[in-house]
Each structure stands twice: as structure tokens, then as C-alpha cells.
Amino acid sequence: MKNSRGCNGGIERKIEGFIIDKCPLKYIDDSISLYLQCYFEYKNGFLPNENGFLDQTAKFSSLITIISNIMSRMEKDYGK
């Protein structure tokens, strides 16, 4: 399975215009990992600050909007 995903190198795939030549997880740094964790926590009903969505920071709200748009496009293009 790792070979088919390119985790052991040697396989080039073009994804959204980018050439991926190693395990896709190697492209994700700590900040992106944190952003994705925030998104999935939000999807499960957890917010970083008390009260509702409108009480969250502008950065958090923008982050959720951007990731939601990307996830929607990926679901449309590739299925769930």
C-alpha cells in the first residue's frame, strides 16, 4: 500500500498541478497539521473560544472557510 501511495518514493503523481514524488504526509508541516486538526474539531462541534461561531477569531473563521471550500471541491471532484 505504501508503494502505491508513493511513500517509498519513485512514483510521481500530479495533484492539483503539483508534482508529488514522495509520501503526501511529508509535505505537511506542523502548522498545516494544526489547521487540519482545528477544522476536524470544528466539524465535530468544538470551537477554540467560548460561545458561538461569531465569537471566534477572524483567523479561525477564515481558516474554516478556506478548508471547507477545499474539502467541498475535493468531495465533488473525487467523491467522499
Outline the secondary-structure elements.
Layout: H1 2-5, E1 13-15, E2 18-20, H2 30-43, H3 58-78
Antiparallel strand pairs: 1-2
Helix pairs in contact: 2-3
The biggest sheet amounts to: 2 strands, antiparallel
Strand content: 5-15%
Measured between the Cα atoms of the first and last residue, the distance is 20 Å
- Share of helix, binned: 40-55%
What structural class do helix, strand and pairing data support?
mainly alpha
Kindly state the number of beta strands: 2
Principal-axes geometry comes out as elongated
Give the H and E element order. HEEHH
How would you write the strand order of the largest sheet?
1-2
Low-confidence stretches: none
**Mean pLDDT, as a whole number?**
83
Rg, nearest Å: 16 Å
The number of distinct helices, counting runs of at least 4 residues, comes to 3
Structural account:
With 80 residues, the chain is mostly helical. It has 3 helices and 2 strands; from the N terminus they run αββαα. It has a two-stranded antiparallel ribbon with strand order 1-2. It is elongated. The two termini are 20 Å apart.
Summary keywords:
two-stranded antiparallel ribbon, single chain, mainly alpha, 80 residues
TL;DR of this structure?
This protein is mostly helical and 80 residues long.
